User: Fold these one by one.
Assistant:
Number 1:
Amino acid sequence: QTAETKKYLASDGVTKDGVKIEVELNIGSANAQEVHDIQYTDGVGLFRSEFLYMGRDTLPSEEEQYKIYRKVLMQAGNNPVTLRTLDIGGDKKLDCLELPKEDNPFLGNRALRLCLQHRDIFKTQLRAALRAGTIGNLWIMFPMVGSMDDIRNAKAVVREVQQDLDRENIKYGKNVKFGIMIEIPSIAMIADLAVKEVDFASIGTNDLCQYTTAVDRLNQNVAKYYQSYHPAMFRLIRYTVEQFNKAGKPICVCGELGGDKLAMPVLLGFGMRRISMGIASVARAKKIISRLDLRFAKEMADKVCQMETAGEIEAYLKDSLKDVI
Ligand code: PEP
Ligand code: MG
């Protein structure tokens, strides 16, 4: 990163034509550095909670989780903290929870599916989160949602936890928002329905690409088939953004494409107004936003959705954005 780019780190993400874009932070350990970096962003768009469960023999207690969620919420102030519930399985394993071996773990019992099965683990996390939600602006997000049933089942567990807390006279956040990751094509394609059941959503382009192109995101042998600029990706994202914007509910991108210098302007062209990324991409993203005119971004976005291949789209974006990136 050049010194010139770094200057943008603490700036506001405003487009050339004056539209504010919420630039949020992805965090995955809540260590001192990550907590410090929150100040450069408009909140935490993705708080991966897996670290709490990894590399240890026992599950994290409610109290332990509560303290960490509280710390992050305090630092973010009024800005949102989007806490993603446990996304384990697939490539991520736990020592503190023995899981049966599966032939296709990425298509198996992972994330929300696993949490719905291991209710005790899920409920402990939700209790800790809801209790921490009395401070700050907490958004709870469920990963790997594929159907309306998934959303309703997750919300039913939340209601159970809220009732438990009520019964025990324990205070919890009453204004917590509930949302989903959109990272399975089946839920993206019914975004018009899903939006009615949630307060917000965030598109996980890493898994969305994996499941749309049918490519294991870790398998180097087929890496060339993992096409993030595949026209199908842009069309799915466009459709999802349109449905959420129509409903007036927040929609964000927290996968790699959100901080990607070529794709991010297209996302804004679709009407996306929130993007979340690792700290390493924040300054550059704000710089690109400040040089981008949204009418131009919209024109590009329309063109991209007419194109036939990822290669064609990439070449077009490189050429069109050469004065911006
Ligand atoms: C994604 O899938 O795009 C995402 C943000 O989640 P993860 O990379 O943790 O699966
Ligand atoms: Mg994911």
Number 2:
Amino acid sequence: MKITVVGTGYVGLVSGACFAEVGINVVCVDVDKKKIEGLKNGVMPIYEPGLEEIVKRNYASGRLQFSTDLGEAIQGSEVAFIAVGTPPGEDGSADLKYVLAVADEIGAKMSDYIVVATKSTVPVTTGEKVRTSIKAALEERNSDLTFAVASNPEFLKEGAAVEDFMKPDRIVIGVDDERAEEIMKRLYKPFQLNGDRIIFMDIPSAEMTKYTANAMLATKISFMNDIANLCELVGANANMVRKGIGSDPRIGTKFIYPGVGYGGSCFPKDVKAIIKTGKQYGYDLKVLQAVEDVNDAQKHVLVKKIKNHFGDDLAGLTFAMWGLSFKPNTDDLREAPAIVIIDELIAAGATVKGYDPIAMKEAQHIYIGDKITYAKDAYDACVDADALLLVTEWSEFRIPSWDALGKLLNNKVVFDGRNIYDKNYLEELGFVHYGIGV
Ligand code: UDX
């Protein structure tokens, strides 16, 4: 079986490499020549645990190929996945120009029946738009070739993307063509170790499923952040409340950790996009608007605590910041709370010394630049700093030497944006600990 994956971003590259890993012949296509050349030489455009290994192994075996030529790649491919970016437009809706350009090119260059499946997170009705683009391109060349459109949203998490893809909880496929359903079933057979994990449905439902999943998870987080803020006011402990409610399986233990707000490429963008879709159809998604508002506010909570402690004017103070990426195990800084926190600290006159195990290059080159200084390790960031800020809960920050930190820091003060430290223990050691809702 041969397939093409268009777009070598997170979703495209991980999907392509994982399909190759189970024995499928995959051509990964991208318009970015540099990226494609890099991949051929084993240079990963993103950091993702386990990815480099499977890309290199499958490229060496010939099962995984990289190309900039979409027309050539789709010859003999039974499926073409569209996994290109859908950046938010100015009004918050997903911009489909890249998706539709790929559809158009497939229509112009296909030479046999093909299933065109969108993997990018796209608004409801995109399936129809993809179909219209391909049809128009075929009509232009007077071709009577047939094709099917499918929606196959991806649920992988950054930092665990390979594992999520290889062992999916579910595979959602929206399709309205029997032949396409058979092809998709065959393609995904290797990933269903324990029974049938494919859920077939109509295309709009598959498109809605992706947004609804992300919106629900974002809702859990914002809900818990809201509750954590109230816990502080009433003198309750959000960690205890979290454990108390999480033990009810209907609520579950996951995604109820309060913190400095969610970031990344999915939640912020998808929550905005589904609100926008609602508006287009004259429906106000009130809960999700609140989810977004709470998250925007939550990114400021840590600085509010800092100002409560040190006063509004932070001139002359230096803060050690541990963690820059939006979550651990990724170098991704898209919508990272760290960016908001840094800007606010600097606006108040402070200096920031940042450290992140993986994301510093990305931070320096794209998101934060020279606004802060970058430390060579976690302890180096604390030398002469006036407080420690924990922003991303990388494992290496979990059990630091408090003894050493107490000597390096000017003040024994910790702002723990992810509640990873035990308040009582730190207080016994003479530290002041500020958490979220604790
Ligand atoms: C998410 C979805 O989990 C995934 O299924 C989808 O395909 C893409 O979006 P991702 O953005 O990679 O994945 O990260 P995720 O691990 O879900 O975390 C998102 C954000 O929520 C992070 O900023 C994280 O710190 C935050 N978070 C998560 C919390 O603040 N509290 C929690 O309890 C869980």
